[in-house]
Design brief:
Distance between the termini: 22 Å
Number of helices: 7
Largest sheet: 7 strands, antiparallel
Strand content: 35-45%
Oligomer: single chain
Order of helices and strands: EHEEEHHHEEHEEHEEEEEHEEEEEEE
CATH architecture of the largest domain: Sandwich
Radius of gyration: 20 Å
CATH superfamily of the largest domain: Jelly Rolls
Shape: globular
Length: 325
């Protein structure tokens, strides 16, 4: 190892959105300058949106520079062989003060062909939800392509969609092709492939500040959409105290939830991969085997380098998402 890596914190990249609100600032103390902050990109390696370290000796370095310098020490040998100097995940917190557009994402094949990008499989973990808050996930029942086109043309698409009420701790997987939207009053953690390709289908007749309606991607979406009934994308999982409990394992990421009461140690010596820790409830002190530590609060994120052999977590009652690939 060239030099000591440690628990890395990055400067959040805040995104103003027409549907955004102020909960990322109120709940998580994000330093927002807008009352419509919709997203906090916690770890990003997308062009023009590259995360920069804020703590320790590597402060000021971008994640791209870290990958070039530390390679497999940062992300793991297998990940580095697969992705090279490209971080494979985009990590976010989202505040939907209004309904997001109804949308879907392409798979790897379509995204590569049309956008020279990865596709987008993503996962949501609900951190806060107003009473009655819901998500849109798929259709109430399978429909034909001609019926779907008719609904889009008549501006009646929302009537055919499946709505799911949500509570704190609910988790959902959003595969490519699944028509979906986050409803107003939801704050969530999002884990996804490194991709910013979204096909917007319906946007509640909203207008931008300039008075124009936002662009729709009707033709692109038609090629990528899954028209089957998708009512089963809520993830069933059981969390156990003081251990890492699996929420989901996909080809793109593995997400566990770690509920900590007092102190636990997690051994990473056999895991050849970086770990992303997302604070979804409470506060915890994370200490690496080198002795260096960081406090992880709700709405914050840490990157544990692949060179770490273990971490110790102390908390009176934190919940942390543990993400790897």
């Amino acid at each position: 190892m060239k030099k000591d890596l440690y628990l890395l914190k990055f400067e959040p990249i805040l995104k103003e959105k027409v549907w955004g609100g102020n909960k990322l600032e109120k709940l998580f103390n994000k330093r927002s300058v807008s009352s419509k902050t919709g997203e906090s990109w916690e770890i990003s390696d997308l062009e023009d949106n590259t995360s920069v370290v804020t703590n320790g000796p590597l402060a000021g370095k971008s994640i791209q520079e870290l990958l070039e310098e530390f390679k497999e020490d940062l992300v793991g040998e297998k990940v580095f062989k697969t992705f090279g100097i490209k971080f494979p995940l985009l990590i976010k917190y989202i505040d939907a003060a209004e309904n997001l557009s109804i949308q879907l994402h392409p798979n790897d094949v379509i995204a590569k062909e049309k956008h020279n990008s990865f596709g987008k499989t993503e996962m949501w973990y609900i951190m806060q939800a107003d009473e009655g808050a819901e998500l849109i996930l798929g259709f109430k029942e399978p429909i034909s392509k001609s019926k779907y086109v008719e609904l889009v043309e008549k501006n009646e698409l929302p009537d055919a969609l499946n709505r799911v009420k949500v509570s704190v701790g609910d988790a959902f997987i959003i595969p490519p092709g699944l028509i979906h939207a986050i409803g107003e009053g939801v704050v969530l953690a999002e884990i996804q492939q490194t991709s910013d390709v979204t096909y917007r289908i319906y946007d509640w007749d909203r207008e931008e500040e300039n008075g124009e309606k936002r662009e729709l991607h009707t033709a692109l979406a038609l090629e990528a959409i899954d028209l089957s009934s998708n009512n089963g994308h809520k993830i069933s999982y059981q969390a156990k105290q003081n251990c890492a409990s699996e929420i989901i394992s996909t080809n793109y990421f593995i997400t566990n939830i770690v509920e900590v009461k007092d102190e636990i140690t997690i051994n990473y010596s056999e895991k050849d991969c970086f770990i992303v820790l997302m604070g979804v409830e409470g506060e915890a002190t994370i200490r690496m085997d080198s002795g260096k530590y960081e406090v992880l609060k709700q709405g914050e994120t840490l990157l544990v380098p692949a060179s770490a052999c273990k971490i110790d977590i102390k908390s009176k009652g934190a919940k942390i998402l543990e993400v790897s690939v």
